[in-house]
Specification:
InterPro entries: Cyt_P450, Cyt_P450_CS, Cyt_P450_E_grp-I, Cyt_P450_sf, Cytochrome_P450_monoxygenase. This is Cytochrome P450 135A1. Its cofactor is heme. It holds the Pfam family p450. This protein is an alpha+beta fold. It has one domain: Cytochrome P450 (Cytochrome p450). The protein has 16 helices and 12 strands. Strand 10 and strand 11 (431-434) form a beta hairpin. Bound molecules: protoporphyrin IX containing FE. Protoporphyrin IX containing FE is lined by residues 86, 102-103, 114, 168, 266-267, 270-271, 274-275, 278, 321-322, 325, 384-387, 390-394, 397-398. Protoporphyrin IX containing FE binds next to helix 12 and helix 16.
């Protein structure tokens, strides 16, 4: 695999290295299209995956080593940000988030953005958002169709977007909210072909790209208007993420308007479909597990937030929304006995690690109790939000939102599954979602 050498000889490590059944570009395509199936097949220690083309987020054009053992995962997350770069792995989504986004930045630029954005996601900040998120969750759940099968994914996409628009961007104007509900999905629901084409100037005048770029221009203009209005209202006028970003100052340094636009684009792109998909899996699973559903409903009525959080976390273990967390190497490194050359990448496989029986006995069973008590799974075994200095900045926000939505769902409805069996996991752009949109039936509770 390019410069990636598998050691031979008496190290005893060679046996822990697996190769994709089909190497080369075909292997990459298979990996991207059938990730859930392949992930199950590849349970093992370290799995080198050969890639030739830049085909998707997180995969280097030269080669990617996929790891999932706790020591190797630790090495990925503890790698120096000077040589282990996440930003370059996400380069493909730059048109969606702008080049000033922390997601695609590395080194000092990334560290600086992170410092300036973090104050908007502290526990004190989250407490101030909680009432608004709770109200939006309740309003949404009350509107669910009852007594017939519906796709949970559609409802969840709507509400997680609404939460970001109101709680992160601070939008209150109804016309602007309506416009953003159309614009954001138009920008994110983009095929890999269109996404890759956006990097080629020559394609930009052609229809799919021209239309997409016009939507992005409009989106940026709306964000600029939002920022200008917040500035005019002055500090302390509102309690939303944007207001905190406007106030953020580290050693006299502040985010410029262009940077604010980039970070806001990032927060919506990284935050809404991911949480929507995690919640869709959760409702899908609970509808098929009446015992866990009853237990969780009891927790919801008793205000037992620890149990509700454990249910959310266990669902994220079984159905990780993002399959890989990647870093590109600017210098050669060795990991799991495998040499990785500069220019190649290493990806920690969330979906493989989450099924490691050493950390999760009977890994296929849904058992929230794993996340209760004094010894929760280590950060190298359960990492749906990545790890190290790049760990998802919205993780606590997302967990809060999920808990509040779950609470209202359980208090309002009994969930049942249509006669069809559980849905398959299917790759949707970058997330892995139930293949039929998470179909369930909600019946109003009588008691
Ligand atoms: C279930 C929901 C979510 C999942 C599974 C998820 C997962 C992830 C993962 C795996 C990463 C990469 C971490 C790494 O490279 O180590 C990430 C980064 C990020 N996420 Fe999330 N995320 C979720 C929700 C959110 C929300 C709600 C927000 C914002 C409101 C958000 C904002 C971000 C940002 C800004 C980054 C980039 C962090 C950095 O580069 O320093 N995410 N997320």
């Amino acid at each position: 695999m390019g410069g990636m050498a598998v050691p031979s000889g008496p190290t005893g490590r060679k046996s822990s290295v697996k190769r994709l059944p089909i190497p080369g570009s075909a292997g990459t395509m298979l990996f991207l299209w059938h990730r859930p199936w392949l992930n199950r097949r590849l349970r093992g220690d370290t799995v080198p995956l050969r890639t030739r083309n830049r085909n998707g987020p997180g995969l280097s054009s030269r080669g990617t080593l996929i790891v999932n053992g706790p020591d190797h995962v630790k090495q990925v997350f503890a790698g120096s940000p000077d040589t282990w770069h996440a930003g370059e792995c996400y380069e493909i989504i730059t048109p969606l988030v702008s080049e000033l986004s922390m997601l695609v930045q590395d080194r000092q630029e990334h560290a600086r953005s992170r410092k300036l954005v973090t104050p908007a996601f502290t526990s004190a900040a989250l407490r101030s958002y909680e009432p608004m998120i709770g109200t939006l969750a309740e309003d949404e759940v009350r509107q669910w169709p009852t007594g017939r099968t519906f796709r949970v994914q559609d409802r969840m996409q709507r509400v997680t977007l609404e939460i970001i628009l109101r709680v992160v961007f601070g939008v209150t104007d109804p016309a602007r909210l309506t416009r953003l509900h159309a614009l954001v999905p138009a920008l994110t629901d983009v095929s890999p072909v269109v996404l890759m084409g956006l990097h080629r100037r020559s394609l930009r005048p052609l229809p799919p790209w021209r239309t997409w770029l016009a939507s992005r221009r409009e989106f940026v203009a709306v964000l600029r208007a939002q920022i200008a209005e917040h500035r005019q209202a002055g500090p302390g006028a509102r309690s939303d993420v944007l207001s905190r970003l406007l106030k953020a100052e580290v050693d006299g340094d502040r985010l410029s308007d262009d940077e604010l636009v980039g970070q806001l684009m990032t927060l919506v792109m990284a935050g809404y479909e991911t949480t929507a998909t995690a919640m869709t899996w959760l409702v899908h699973d609970l509808a098929r597990m009446p015992d866990v559903q009853d237990r969780a409903r009891r927790a919801a009525s008793e205000g037992d937030t620890a149990y509700l959080d454990a249910v959310v976390k266990e669902c994220m273990r079984i159905h990780p929304v993002l399959a890989l967390v990647s870093r590109g190497l600017s210098e050669e490194a060795e990991i799991g006995g495998v040499r990785v050359a500069a220019g190649e990448s290493v990806a920690a496989s969330v979906s493989l690690a989450h099924f490691n029986p050493a950390h999760f006995p009977e890994p296929d069973r849904f058992r929230p109790e794993r996340f209760l008590g004094d010894a929760p799974p280590p950060a190298t075994a359960w990492f749906p939000f990545g790890g190290g200095v790049r760990r998802c900045i919205g993780a606590a926000f997302s967990l809060l939102e999920s808990r509040l939505l779950l609470r209202w769902i359980l208090l309002t409805f009994e969930l049942t599954a249509p006669t069809t069996g559980p849905e398959r996991a299917k790759a949707r752009t970058v997330v892995t979602a139930p293949h039929r949109g998470g179909r369930v039936i909600a019946t109003p509770r009588t008691s």
